[in-house]
């Protein structure tokens, strides 16, 4: 584990990398494909919420400059 907690921007970047791993992939089963599609959709939703929070500069933790 890292010594320093992740910033919001670092979390956003890691989510981007995770989505890139799945984007365009086809699963072997319908269930697997549903998981891939749900992961991409939910991650997109989370990132949109993070963008709103970052744009409004909230929430701010004590560790953020």
How is this structure best described in words?
With 65 residues, the protein is mostly helical. It has a domain of 37 residues. The chain contains two helices and no strands. α1 runs antiparallel to α2.
The share of residues in helices is: 55-70%
- If you average the pLDDT, what whole number results? 86
Largest sheet: none
Order of helices and strands: HH
What fraction of the residues are assigned to beta strands by DSSP?
Answer: under 5%
Q: How many distinct helices?
A: 2
- Alpha carbon gyration radius: 15 Å
State the separation between the terminal residues, measured CA to CA: 22 Å
Global morphology: elongated
Low-confidence stretches: none
- How many strand units? 0
Query: Structural class, please?
Result: mainly alpha
